[in-house]
Amino acid sequence: MEMETVPNGSSPSSTTTTTNAAVTTTAASAAAVAAAISPNAPSSKLNLLSESLKLEHQFLRVPFEHYKKAIRANHRIVEKELSAVINGVSDAAESDMSRDDAVHHLNSLVSRLQGLKRKSEEGSRTENLQAQRCRARLDHLESADPENLSDWHDTRLKRILVDYMLRMSYYNTAVKLAESSNIQDLVDIDVFHEAKKVIDALQNKEVTPALAWCADNKSRLKKSKVQLSLFL
């Protein structure tokens, strides 16, 4: 699998050295795993599995946070649109408008409800996608047991490599590895792609996507006491 050039201008040789170091470290860990899961060390297998699962907090947190975010966004949309329609019906009932005006007004409310239906369907698909990812990751963790640690750690290694490639801006290579390993639901490619759009826009001196991201994550930024929008 050929690695693409780093967008930030880092030399391929330095990045390759870093990658080789990461792979060497992971290979050493894999060797330790192999030694620990020998047939004569059942307690070591359980201890190793327990320690591995302790590191998976972020693995579950990312899709779960996006799932909650999708639910909140859909709830806000439904509340806003239904409130507008109800107020529109009340205004029509209280006003002295002609028959034609009333029909036109009600048709506009019907169109708004149809738009809400489309938005709700899109939101439902987003929720289902995030729920599917949560389920896939739970199934992956549940599949770990002392008897199949080799396969489980092989998948975990590929997840780590995909994450590393994404953080180093090897987006295309990361996508190819995830697809060839059939682990799309176990990695956060979409999150990094969204971040890449903001970064690319900032490099082109466009702040609108970054400001939109700040507005979308306002509550989390406030909780972290980060006023990122002021710097934009």
Automatic annotation (TrEMBL):
Residues 1-20 are annotated as: Disordered. Pfam families: CTLH. One of its GO terms (cellular component) is GID complex. This is Putative ovule protein. InterPro entries: CTLH/CRA, Fyv10_fam, LisH. It comes from the Eukaryota. GO terms for molecular function: ubiquitin-protein transferase activity. GO terms for biological process: proteasome-mediated ubiquitin-dependent protein catabolic process. It comes from Solanum chacoense. PANTHER family: E3 UBIQUITIN-PROTEIN TRANSFERASE MAEA (PTHR12170:SF2), MACROPHAGE ERYTHROBLAST ATTACHER-RELATED (PTHR12170). PROSITE patterns: LISH (PS50896). Signal peptide: none annotated. Residues 191-229 form the CTLH/CRA C-terminal to LisH motif domain.
